[in-house]
């Protein structure tokens, strides 16, 4: 009797053990599969055989002034040019469900990563009317959210799949497409398949529903008001070096790489980062070190990886403006820089017929301190009509939700064209030949 009982118990344990081993195997296989998935996603767009809209087969097709002039991109008349990429309508107010008891808005940040959003980006402390919730997908009730923010670069499937998204989608709920980077970096996502999915956009571009720029002129002047610069300061005096460039991506087919290759033949450029003097570089993310390093120089090459309309990144806003150095910019058109940045705060490469002419001008400024200091005059003269203070992109989501009428509806019927341009013209085309940061295609600046 006892033995039989024991035997039964043993059987039970055995079954449990087999089940455990089986579950363990499933778990291991699943994690391998997800690693493969991540790798595949990383590779998106780097595959030579994949035909993507930006691909051009011939390097010589890329021209330095390949960007059209987009200064008239957003005319001020009533007919908004992007309107053909979305639809708006109103629903009959009497058909809406009766109001919730609280006016507080709930915003879900869908599928966050360890690096996004950065901890100090949320919550939006100045606006207690909004609650932000970070959630891994499918582990949360979403029906009561007013908006859900989706990360549009590595955070959504390559092709739209209803099953990947929240199970229910109430009509009042706003799905936000958030892209921090430019269209070249979303090229692996088939945005055509996302037609009719997202209600709002949140990007660095000024015609987004929510502006999420890398920097903002009002923030710059606000910081200066708190920490005013000495009037008539001689910025040239404290500098003993000429041109600095921090660069980690020197893929040979980027137009900035071609430009810089020529520039360094005419002026001494100290190159730091993966493509230059690695040993002398500041550790990644060490802003104090960077500040001390950069300040010794007169000019900073704020060259964007990609030339896309309105795409002006931290290279301009932080590495240059914050560190009392004159940025030499390469990226969006001059008109765009002028529209978004402090007056006379930069030197644009398009003003020069060649890198050699630019080098000559930099040497001229090096010899002429008064002229050089003119590039800092903006610091003590804020423009009269500064745009409304931009606080943070998450606060702006909250503000827009609070302002929105409950009957308004909007959806992007052609997100792809809105984002990349009707004929893919919002970014300069680029040759994709192997991996961008791969060593084979990198140029080194000794
Ligand atoms: C690029 O195109 C030009 C003109 O069509 C041609 O002469 C050249 O050989 C091409 N280069 C490559 C690498 O295909
Ligand atoms: C809205 O719906 C109500 C009830 O169905 C109807 O009586 C009213 O005429 C509708 N209003 C409009 C503007 O369509
Ligand atoms: C950005 O867009 C807003 C709203 O459409 C407009 O009022 C503003 O002038 C634009 N800003 C710039 C710098 O173009
Ligand atoms: C958001 O888009 C969906 C899908 O097209 C639509 O059904 C819904 O009414 C939109 N909601 C809002 C608030 O615009």
Automatic annotation (TrEMBL):
Molecular-function GO term, any one: alpha-(1->3)-fucosyltransferase activity
Metabolic or biological pathway, per its Swiss-Prot or TrEMBL entry: Protein modification; protein glycosylation
Query: Mostly located where?
Result: Golgi
List, for all copies, the residue spans of the domain called Fucosyltransferase N-terminal.
Answer: 104-215
InterPro entries found in the cross-reference section:
Glyco_tran_10_C, Glyco_tran_10_N, Glyco_trans_10, GT10-like_C_sf
Q: How does it sit in the membrane?
A: Single-pass type II membrane protein; Single-pass membrane protein
Quote the SUPFAM superfamilies the UniProt record gives: UDP-Glycosyltransferase/glycogen phosphorylase (SSF53756)
Gene3D superfamilies named in the record: Glycosyl transferase family 10, C-terminal domain
Q: Which residues form a coiled coil?
A: none
Q: Where are the transmembrane segments?
A: 16-40
UniProt keyword annotation of Glycoprotein present:
yes
Cellular compartment(s): Golgi apparatus, Golgi stack membrane; Membrane
Query: What family does the Swiss-Prot or TrEMBL record give for this protein?
Result: Belongs to the glycosyltransferase 10 family.
Designated name of the protein? Fucosyltransferase
According to its UniProt entry, this protein's organism is Branchiostoma floridae
Gene name per UniProt: LOC118422612
